[in-house]
Design brief:
Elements (H helix, E strand, L loop, with lengths): L2 E7 L4 E7 L2 H12 L7 E7 L6
Antiparallel strand pairs: 1-2, 1-3
Length: about 55
Amino acid sequence: MIWQLCIQYASGRERVLRSYRNRETALRCVDAIYARGYPLHIAYVVRHAQVQMA
C-alpha cells in the first residue's frame, strides 16, 4: 500500500507532500512536523493513496 502525507488547508483544498510505503513512517513524519508547533490554518494528514484511472 502507498500512503500519502497531505497538507490540508482551511479552505478544504489538499496537496500531497510526499508518499510512503509504510503508514507508520508517514505518521512519524506528521509527529515530527507537529513537534515544532500546531499551525492554526492547516493540517497534516496521512491518507491511503487514491488510484486514478486514465
